[in-house]
Structure formats: structure tokens, C-alpha cells
Design goal:
The chain has one domain. Helix content is 4%, strand content 42%. It has helices at residues 26-29, 161-164, and strands spanning 8-9, 14-15, 43-54, 58-69, 77-80, 86-91, 104-118, 121-130, 138-141, 144-149, 187-190, 195-203.
């Protein structure tokens, strides 16, 4: 929880250490406090491996790993137009008001053959399979509710937007549904697909 992600601002990909837009305008401070972009509330990690000797010079190693992590928070973002800060700068609703992304799960396997071909020397061949089940979970969605300049709805809820959201132009005009970003909450990133890694090494 907090009101600044650090030296990098993930909402707009702004990398200006100690000089990003977070505290530039009073208007931008509204609704900033909440779960940060890197907030992973729950993590599960399970690892196991065993070596199976096959005769004196050869052994096989088998291993498996499971990693599970709860999803990142989703925001309702809008643009700041009055001072031309642009899209993704205004937290229309408090951080995390869009819920969270789904859990991200990965299951990996490892196998290796070790051959001790001389005193103190071992030749190893290995293969790793990452994301064995080829899960394709969503890892990011478009958080931009609109690209129009709007004012934050302080401590608001999604149900408040049709009646309380206003443009950032001093007109107090009600927000038009036509200005909602059609890609809002649509996926922008996915879990990496199944991949293999092959290795060979000599230890001495």
C-alpha cells in the first residue's frame, strides 16, 4: 500500500527517478493511495529434487517447481488535459478499484544426467521445461478508462462514474459514454508460453 511506486511509474512507463509526475499537481494526488502496481498479496512456492544413482559413474537428477502468485491490482485511469500531462496520470477512482488480475501459476520440470568420467571431473547434460502445461494467463490489462481529460472522483466507486465523472476543462460537463476506452480491461500481456532449455557442462 502507498501512493508512489518508486523510481519508475508503471502506469505511464515514466522513468524519471525522483522527478516523475506523481506529486507535480495537487489534482494528481487524489485517489493515489492504495495497493501499488507491484503488490502481490499471496505467493506460493514449492520446490523438490532428488538424485538417483545409476551405477557408480552415472546419476540422474529429477526436479519440479511450482510458483503461484496472486494478481496485481487494476486501476481506473484517465488523462490530465488542463496542464497537458496526458493519459494515465489521473486516478479516476482510488488505486485498485478495478479488482485484481487472476492468479499466475507456473509448473516447471528439470532433468539432468551426470557422468563422473574421471577423478573430480563430471560431465552433465540437462533439460528444463518451463510452464509445462503451457498456461496462458493474463498478466496485464489496459487500465486507461478514458483518454479524455477528466477529474478524479475522490473516494468514488465504479458505480459512481456515470453520474459523478466530469471533464477536466472547467465546464462541469457530465462524462460521455462515447469517451470510454473500448480496450479498457482488455488484455495487454500474457504469461510466457512453454519453453525448453538444454544445457551441457563440465565440472572439475
Amino acid at each position: 500500500m502507498g501512493n508512489i511506486d518508486g523510481l519508475f511509474r508503471p502506469e505511464t512507463a515514466q522513468l524519471d527517478p525522483n522527478a516523475n509526475s506523481t506529486f507535480d499537481l495537487k489534482q494528481l494526488l487524489a485517489n493515489q493511495y492504495g495497493p501499488l502496481a507491484g503488490d502481490t498479496t499471496n505467493v506460493i512456492k514449492l520446490y523438490g529434487a532428488k538424485v538417483f544413482p545409476i551405477g557408480n559413474p552415472v546419476s540422474i537428477t529429477l526436479g519440479a517447481a511450482y510458483n503461484g502468485a496472486s494478481g496485481a491490482p487494476i486501476n481506473y485511469l484517465g488523462a490530465n488535459r488542463a496542464q497537458q500531462y496526458g493519459p494515465g496520470e489521473v486516478y479516476i477512482l482510488p488505486r485498485g478499484s478495478g479488482g485484481r488480475l487472476p492468479w499466475l501459476n507456473t509448473f516447471d520440470l528439470h532433468a539432468a544426467v551426470d557422468w563422473r568420467f574421471a577423478q573430480g571431473w563430471t560431465l552433465s547434460f540437462s533439460v528444463d521445461c518451463f510452464n509445462v502445461f503451457n498456461w496462458q494467463q493474463i498478466t496485464a490489462v489496459d487500465n486507461n478508462y478514458t483518454f479524455a481529460g477528466v477529474l478524479p472522483v475522490v473516494n468514488g466507486k465504479p458505480s459512481d462514474l456515470p453520474s459523478l465523472l466530469r471533464y477536466d476543462d472547467g465546464s462541469n460537463r457530465p462524462f460521455a459514454q462515447a469517451d470510454i476506452n473500448p480496450n479498457f480491461l482488455h488484455a495487454t500481456g500474457y504469461q510466457l508460453p512453454r519453453a525448453f532449455r538444454f544445457g551441457a557442462k563440465v565440472s572439475f
